[in-house]
Amino acid sequence: MSFPTVRMRRMRRSEALRRLVRETRLSRDDLVLPLFAVPGSGVREAVTSMPGVFRLSADQIAEEAKAVADLGIPAVILFGIPEQKDARGSGADAADGIVQRAVAAAKRAAPELCVITDVCLCEYTDHGHCGLLDGEEVANDPSLERLAATALSHARAGADIVAPSDMMDGRVAAIRATLDAAHCESIPILAYAAKYASAFYGPFREAAESTPAFGDRRGYQMDPPNQREALREMHLDLEEGADILMVKPALPYLDVLAAARRRFDVPLAAYQVSGEYAMLMAAAERGWLDGPRAMLESLVAIKRAGADFILTYAAKDIAARLAP
Question: Is 248 marked active-site?
Answer without folding.
Answer: yes
